[in-house]
């Protein structure tokens, strides 16, 4: 055999040998895939459920796992944001605390807090003030208003001004009504008899209203001028922006003094109405016929009530009358005491002069008096309180309406024990 032929034969042999392992590898891979497929089919066949049900269960499981992962991610992100925000706020709050001033550590008073980022522009009012010391006369001029807030659907208003002096509020004046205008010209003057001593403690209130014939008149805005801060050496005439009207009038309704005594072992609350002074006159003769109503409310509902005798024609009555209520220690923490002064009228309905309420939900001097009573059991604690308007106290208490009780239930001993 020639040499080239031998080499060719040796090359073919090598090719045959090389091709044979490749065929083995391919066969092995195919056999592995076939075995895996058979195992999966066997596993699926062993589950006693249809194929479609198994697929649904698997899909739901995967979906639940994804939802859990998503919730965990969101929670982690929120924690990170809150932590960053807290650190940023802490840096802002502590920025001014350098040991040289204490103003940053003082919490602002309630009246200093602005509950609202946007202020509604209500217009402005031009007024004048002049005081004649020889005649003890205060003359207030209502000149004109400009750019008043529109209160009607047509984009206009029917404005007029109401004027009075606090705390006496003996006279109330009103200007003429101007129809369909936001810039009325009034040019009216009003006179009040006011001694110099009262002038320095008085406040002039100018309220601009929108007139409505068939509905309640709406307040557009108001001005409150502390007359004690005015320079009376010359006539005052100036423009001022109208402010949001006060929710309640700061009137001088008088003061009342009473004592409280609570005995926890006997479950007895004793209220002694001592006296009142400088009450607001409710009758035409400049006097009143006052009496005091003492009422307990429990869980925002009227509970027990007692009244004093009536004192005729006086603004400084002396009562010294005692009332005892049965109140358990559990109830004393949920009870409010309402003390109200009323003017008795034989013909017409009795009028409320003023009210005050004490309890764990009260504030200021009222809360302090209640706390002193609880911290000093069996000892009477007396204190003077300034009367507030009935509207203000009623809105704060927000008592629930009483459910009518049948007479048979009222006559039962159980009802008398707990509700009388």
From TrEMBL:
<dbReference type="GO" id="GO:0030672">
    <property type="term" value="C:synaptic vesicle membrane"/>
</dbReference>
<feature type="domain" description="C2">
    <location>
        <begin position="121"/>
        <end position="240"/>
    </location>
</feature>
<dbReference type="GO" id="GO:0005544">
    <property type="term" value="F:calcium-dependent phospholipid binding"/>
</dbReference>
<dbReference type="InterPro" id="IPR000008">
    <property type="entry name" value="C2_dom"/>
</dbReference>
<dbReference type="GO" id="GO:0048488">
    <property type="term" value="P:synaptic vesicle endocytosis"/>
</dbReference>
<dbReference type="InterPro" id="IPR001565">
    <property type="entry name" value="Synaptotagmin"/>
</dbReference>
<dbReference type="InterPro" id="IPR035892">
    <property type="entry name" value="C2_domain_sf"/>
</dbReference>
<dbReference type="GO" id="GO:0001786">
    <property type="term" value="F:phosphatidylserine binding"/>
</dbReference>
<keyword id="KW-1133">Transmembrane helix</keyword>
<feature type="domain" description="C2">
    <location>
        <begin position="252"/>
        <end position="385"/>
    </location>
</feature>
<dbReference type="GO" id="GO:0048791">
    <property type="term" value="P:calcium ion-regulated exocytosis of neurotransmitter"/>
</dbReference>
<dbReference type="Pfam" id="PF00168">
    <property type="entry name" value="C2"/>
</dbReference>
<protein>
    <submittedName>
        <fullName>Synaptotagmin-1-like isoform X1</fullName>
    </submittedName>
</protein>
<feature type="transmembrane region" description="Helical">
    <location>
        <begin position="54"/>
        <end position="78"/>
    </location>
</feature>
<comment type="similarity">
    <text>Belongs to the synaptotagmin family.</text>
</comment>
<dbReference type="GO" id="GO:0005509">
    <property type="term" value="F:calcium ion binding"/>
</dbReference>
<dbReference type="GO" id="GO:0030276">
    <property type="term" value="F:clathrin binding"/>
</dbReference>
<keyword id="KW-0677">Repeat</keyword>
<dbReference type="GO" id="GO:0000149">
    <property type="term" value="F:SNARE binding"/>
</dbReference>
<keyword id="KW-0472">Membrane</keyword>
<dbReference type="GO" id="GO:0005886">
    <property type="term" value="C:plasma membrane"/>
</dbReference>
<dbReference type="GO" id="GO:0031045">
    <property type="term" value="C:dense core granule"/>
</dbReference>
<dbReference type="GO" id="GO:0030424">
    <property type="term" value="C:axon"/>
</dbReference>
<keyword id="KW-0812">Transmembrane</keyword>
């Amino acid at each position: 055999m020639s040499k080239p032929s031998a080499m060719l034969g040796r090359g073919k042999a090598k090719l045959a040998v090389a091709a044979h392992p490749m065929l083995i590898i391919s066969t092995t891979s195919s056999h592995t895939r076939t075995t895996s497929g058979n195992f999966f089919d066997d596993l699926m066949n062993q589950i006693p459920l249809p194929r479609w049900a198994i697929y649904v269960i698997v899909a739901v499981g995967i979906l639940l796992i994804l939802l859990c992962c998503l919730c965990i991610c969101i929670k982690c992100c929120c924690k990170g944001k809150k932590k960053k925000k807290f650190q940023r706020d802490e840096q802002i709050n502590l920025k001014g605390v350098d040991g040289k001033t204490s103003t940053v550590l003082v919490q602002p008073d309630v009246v200093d807090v602005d509950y609202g980022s946007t202020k509604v522009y209500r217009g402005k009012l031009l007024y004048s003030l002049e005081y004649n010391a020889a005649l003890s006369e205060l003359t207030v001029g209502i000149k004109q208003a400009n750019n008043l807030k529109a209160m009607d659907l047509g984009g206009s208003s029917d404005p007029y001004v109401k004027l009075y002096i606090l705390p006496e509020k003996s006279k109330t004046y009103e200007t003429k009504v101007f129809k369909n205008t936001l810039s009325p010209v009034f040019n009216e003057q009003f006179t009040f008899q006011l001694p110099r001593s009262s002038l320095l403690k008085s406040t002039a209130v100018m309220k601009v209203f929108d007139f409505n014939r068939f509905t309640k008149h709406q307040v557009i805005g108001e001005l409150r001028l502390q007359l004690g801060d005015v320079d009376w050496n010359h006539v005052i005439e100036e423009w001022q922006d109208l402010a949001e009207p006060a929710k309640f009038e700061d009137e001088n309704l008088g003061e009342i003094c009473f004592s409280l005594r609570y005995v926890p072992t006997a479950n007895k609350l004793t209220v002694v109405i001592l006296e009142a002074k400088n009450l607001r006159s409710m009758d035409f003769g400049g006097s009143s016929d006052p009496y005091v109503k003492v009422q307990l409310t429990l869980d925002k509902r009227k509970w027990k009530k007692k009244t004093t005798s009536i004192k005729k024609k006086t603004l400084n009555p002396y009562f010294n009358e005692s009332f005892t209520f049965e109140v358990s220690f559990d109830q004393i923490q949920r009870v409010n005491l309402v003390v109200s002064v009323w003017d008795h009228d034989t013909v017409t309905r009795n009028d409320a002069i003023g009210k005050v309420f004490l309890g764990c939900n009260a504030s200021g001097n009222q809360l302090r008096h209640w706390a002193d009573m609880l911290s000093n059991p069996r000892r009477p604690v007396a204190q003077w309180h300034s009367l507030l308007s009935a509207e203000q106290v009623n809105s704060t208490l927000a008592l629930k309406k009483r459910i009518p009780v049948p007479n048979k239930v009222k006559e039962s001993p159980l009802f008398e024990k707990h509700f009388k």
